[in-house]
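Contributing new records

If you add data, match the layout below exactly. Sequence lines come first and carry their own label; structure lines follow with theirs. Keep one chain per record. Anything else will be rejected by the validation script.
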Amino acid sequence: MKWPFLHSLDSKILSPYLTHYLPAAVILIFGMLSLHISLHSTHEQKEVLLFNQQQSENQIEAEEQLMRVRNALSSYLIFEDTQSLHAAKKYFHEFANFFEQKLGAALPVNAATELVDHNRYKEAQNEVRIQITKLAIVISSLEGMHKNEMKEKVLDAVNPLHQALEDLISHLYSTDVVNAQINDIEGHGSQLYWSVLAIGLAGFLMVLLNTDKMMRLRRSAQEREKYIADILKAEHDHKVLQDQFYQAQKMEAVGRMAGGIAHDFNNILAAMNGFAEFLVEDLKDDRELQKFALNILQAGQQARDLIDQLMTFSRRRSIMERHSMDLRALIDDNASIIKASMPRSIELSVRSSLRQAPMMGDQGQIAQALMNLCVNACDAIESGRGIIEIILEDVEPKAFENILSLRDSLPLEQDQPPLRIDDIGPGQAYLGLGSLSRDHAYIALSVRDNGSGISHTTMEQMFEPFFTTKPVNKGTGLGLSTVMGMVAAHQGALVVRSQVGQGSTFTILFPVLDSIGSTPIASAKEASAHKVIDKLSGKVLLVEDEPSVQAMMADLLQRLGMDVTFCDSGLEALDILREHPHTFDVVITDHNMPKMTGIELAFQAGIDFPGLPFVMITGYAEQELRDLVSEQNNIKALLRKPASREALAGAIADALGVSKGRKA
């Protein structure tokens, strides 16, 4: 038989219809049918259950009330007391009323009674009523009867009533009724089974016909999950970068503040230490007073060491003596000093896979950082017994790419190193400070301890200056900030691994370089290490804007034998030089002054007076300042405040020797 309608349909329309809509329609139809059968079966079972439960309760209650009537009549037959007879009449009345209310009414029409023979049930109800009437007659005529006669009549009335009540209930629970109810339930279950089977077959057909589409949907879901994961990762990376930016801003602000405080404090120390040196010199005949002056000078030198740490943190230390060095030799030289500063109960071990570790750096800064890390490790071992390891090894930048960012070149010294902290487990944290160049090899210097460890919260603050978890008398809070400044100044990085209660490992990564720029101008130490100068001669122009430092420097220069003229600004110094040309042998100037800096003064004076040497004194000097100083041939020395008598005398002697061909 041909179907014109089907022939008129395009196969491209018919195929989607069969694969998508027909199985879905089958599932919908049989699903609705299964739901209807399930609900109908459940409703019928509920009706049967509730009816049977109610009838069982009524039967039990009727039998209990009839038993009370029997017991009251038995009591009367034994004792023949009026009270028992009244109780029997009362209980009988309650039983008759209960029967009419609960068991005497017509059966409801529902699933529980549709298989019951209602006519026979009514006949059984009438039989119970007849027996109730007979018992009522017997109870009303008991008075005046002989005991044997009463007993016979009561038994003839009560027993048939009890039997009639049981026959009434038996009509509801006959074998035919119960079997019919079971068959009805099984029929519903069979219908539900075939409906569910049809749904399963239609579903299998739909899956089979739509496998390709489901695969596409699965791939789409996987792509969507990957897209969402990429978005979440991007958001996490953005948050990490944002936290690093905020941390960098905070540390930069703190660094600027520390550098500014250090510079101002250096001016105070310059005057204090200078005048203390005068006292030490002038009190040679009074040993007791000279001892007090020496204590003042020693305290000033300790304050200068503290300023050094601030300078290192802010990366503004005036002169960093960076040169080729062997890090392995430095560790070996300092290990005994570090060991001597620790309790004997703490074991210090040095392990190195390198025979030599050549690098460019400042030995003093690196030694100070190593000492700070070992002291912190010692303090972290709260029990007083533990192990501290110093480890030296070669590493590749890729080994740290999960915590440190990799870049194409070394970071600049003035860059704020990025800070990142990750939790890698309960009580375990991982910190990365700085970045690495993927094209450079690195030397790793690690200090490991088995102390109390560092929490995530402490890691967030431990590089801030003056932050410390130690008691007031055990630390200044500058140790790790100094390490941070040293790492940044050496274009390196720092990695910290710690677990609370297990210990910590601090790893400093130094780049291995062939060269690191030009040699800096001679420091005060280099200028005076080879000579001790008591007296000088010549005229000096002192330029210093701080009154106390100016007074101290003028007195010091006079004590050295110099003829001193002083002023408090670069502009005034230029006016004096122009008014008195060829008068001064050397100019000593501060760098950080209002209106005109020391560099600007030296530059302008170099044009007007090419042969006039300069000695510059500064509280700090950034990389740019050192580069500018190296470009000025007339600047012969760069001293850091507070400059000692020997350092200043050596610098002036070198400057005069260069300018006039004579030595002091």
